[in-house]
Amino acid sequence: MQASTSLAEKSLPAAVPATSRRRRAAGAGGTAGLKRAHYRNSRLPLLLLLPQLLILLLFFFIPAVRALVQAFVITDPFGNSVQFVWFDNFRALLASPEYRDSIWVTVWFTLTQNVLTIGVAGLLAFATDRVIRGRGLYRSVVLLPYAIAPVIAGILWAFLFNAHVGPLAYVLKALGIAWDPSLSGFDAFMLVTVAAAWKHICYDYIFLVAALLAVPPSLLEAAAVDGAGPGLRFYKIALPMIGPTVFFLVVMNFVYGFFETFAIVDAVTRGGPGGATMILVYKVYQDGFVHIDLGSSAAQSVLLMIFAVALTLLQFRYVERNVNYDV
Amino acid sequence: MERTRRTLFGGLLALGLMTGLAAPSVAQQRTEIQFWHAMGGVLGERVDEIVSRYNASQAKYTVVATNKGNYDEVINGTIAAYRAKKAPHLVQIYERGFMTMLLSDAIVPVQDLLTEKKKQIDWADFIKPVASYYQYKGKLMTMPFNSSAPILWYNKEHFEKAGYSAPAETWQELEKQLYAIKSKGIADCGSSLAGDFFWSLIENYSTVNDQPFGTRANGYDGLDTVFVYNKTKVVQQVTRLKKWIDDGIMQIAGQGLSPEQLYTSGKCSTFFASTAAHGSVERNAKIKWSATYLPWEEGTTPRNSSIGGATIWALKGQKAEDYDGVADFLAFVASPDLQVWWSKVTGYVPITNKAYQVAKAEGYYKENPTREIAILQLNRGTPTANSQGFHFGNYTQSTFALRQEMEAVWAGKKKPQEALDDAVRRGNEILRQFEKIYAGKY
Fold it and tell me: Number of structural domains, chain B?
């Protein structure tokens, strides 16, 4: 879909906010000038936006503001005494080795998960074209994990790879790999990462298949005639053409890794052993909901938000430069 | 998402219950008492049974019991409800939440309430470690409900095959036995590490061996307490456990498998876990199981172990006349008959000596000797400052830090001393924060 963006896209100044650009990229059709002509002095657009804005207000802006306020106070859980402590919550966090560990775990987790998800989804999507018989079945099988609730997926993975009873753990051991996610931080980390990637591959897959469909077959055929193999055709022709989609997916994967992997971590490792899989969002949950340390938890969610926004902006600033919307 | 669905379901269920009960309550002017608890599955059914017994026993009040999820979810739900001024009358909170509840300004001390309402309760009759855990300035603050103590579960056959009649009394001797069982090929695994090992193998190790866990009498004498378990015999205990794990004597079930299954399936010879496991062990074990006291260190006189479990708190802010019903129901819960029944069907210990005597007189412990171990262990000796319990603020959080550091030891990331130092450092930060929030309140 991003691949079909109009030429006008390229001439947009870099300073245009990411969201508005994305909206245009989604193919709103027509230019800004046209919209103005149609809707001048009309309240209709505002009215149409209202339900969405209301939802955002209730479920995003109000909680976000409350989290921001909460981050600067310490309070007892029941809220009977509230002390304003300026930046103490943040200071305590940044001084804590556990929090710094958690940041690194999150960085490695989101990066690995991202590479894995895009890589495998890309491979599967590219292979879709080469599956002649049972393509429908193939697609459905690839899409299945998306239909499984994260908690269920997590429990399945935890069981399959349980060092005592997991069938896949037996396979690993038979292959001579010492495997125990409850004793090895690395094993636990890999398990959570692969489980999270597995859950999200189908999402990337749908987008990539759609993007690949938009690649003109004539180009690929011409390359094939010129003697380029499947790998070369993918790398030289398909990949540049699906660049915008890949970029979009990278951003989405980071968002997924940052915020939505909570249930998988909870079911597979609970952040253990010894914090090896304690990603930031899970720590927010632990400190806020299990330990009712609201100030610290709020400060953590504010920091997490800042990380996520900063990362996304960085991506738009540096990665998007190399993305060509013009093909 | 899962959470919302469960709450939604629970909410619908509660709604159904309330509407179902609404008709008679109008006719007879019954007052409704809301009771939130954390007992799921079979235990939840038992709680429902208590409530329906109570409702049938009198005509003035209808207690509505609602399962609000696990312990964490119940305390969180209560806090959210309290802030929204929709708190229930009664709520079951785990022992680790004691200080948070005590200093919350949101509770009515039960001993005061029941005394005011002229309920006949023998306050001196509660089992000592139960009473001491939940007392503040000599009065019970909350009604003990489900209390348990960790005991040593073992596989009779494994020990007999290795030539032992039973597990040894001390850690040193037990260690030799477990190594012998493994080296003789009787069992691959000497012990399965329970999920709450910090309770059964570290906290209770400290109380049984009379080791301080924190200063100021484990927090009883003030909020300025600091953890000291990195300077006690706990170091030796953690070193031993680490050695066991490295040698495959102790095994960790891991996510996706319950540690109890490793024991009940006959894979592991022992299991240090709550006496409340009686219900499931009796049902699931395919082995000849038995149980005995927790071991102690060579050359020490063993003290009482500490309790775990939860209590029922009465919350402030309800209509004044409702508290007659609250007190009435709490007195019903503490009555010996109910306690005996509750203890039998769940495996929790009876919380009063009277209830214990009733069960004993019936010959219950002759038939079920392992059921008596926990209560004998709790009643062993006079509790000292080290064994009366733990009054540490925000204790779930520092327990979590301890557990995390222990996992780092098992995984070989830290040495026992280093990890315990870190756990104490993290725990003390949590205590200082708690002291700051509640300054002058304790």
Answer: 2
Contacts of B394 in chain A (CB under 8 A): 291-293
Amino acid at B316: K
Domain match, B143 and B289 both:
no
Reported pTM: 0.84
- CA-nearest residue to B411 within chain A is A183
Question: Is B383 domain-assigned?
Answer: no
Using the Cβ of A20 and the Cβ atoms of chain B, whether some distance falls under 8 Å is answered with no
Q: What CATH code would you report for A90-322?
A: 1.10.3720.10
Q: Are B143 and B312 in contact (CB under 8 A)?
A: yes
Strands B31-37 and B90-94: parallel
Cβ atoms B311, B78 nearer than 8 A: no
Contact list, B76 vs chain A (CB under 8 Å)? 289, 292
- Supply the CATH number for residue B139's domain: 3.40.190.10
For residue A74, which amino acid is it? I
Residue B335 structural domain: 2-148+309-367
Query: Would you call B437 and A81 a contact, using CB atoms and an 8 Å cutoff?
Result: yes
Tens-digit pLDDT profile for residues B46-99: 999 999 999 999 999 999 999 999 999 999 999 999 989 999 999 999 999 999
B378 lies in some domain = no
Residues of B whose CB is below 8 A from A186: none
Q: Does A243 touch chain B (CB under 8 A)?
A: no
Whether B106 and B216 map to the same domain: the answer is: no
Q: Does A269 touch chain B (CB under 8 A)?
A: yes
User: Tens digit of pLDDT for each residue in A134-143?
Assistant: 778 888 888 8
Interface predicted TM-score of the whole assembly (ipTM), two decimals: 0.82
Please say whether the beta carbons of B200 and B274 come within 8 A. Answer: yes
Residue type (1 letter), B71: Y
Q: How far is CA B2 from CA A198, A263, A264, B9, in A?
A: 20, 9, 12, 11
In this structure, are residues B206 and B229 in contact, taking their beta carbons and an 8 Å threshold?
A: yes
Q: How is residue A71 written in tokens?
A: 């981050």
Q: Say if residue B412 is in the same domain as residue B322.
A: no
Put simply, whether A159 touches B (Cβ < 8 Å) is yes
* Largest pairwise CA distance in chain B: 71
CA distances to B39, B85, B91, B345 from B43, rounded to whole Å, are: 5, 29, 16, 9
Same structural domain, B279 and B360: no
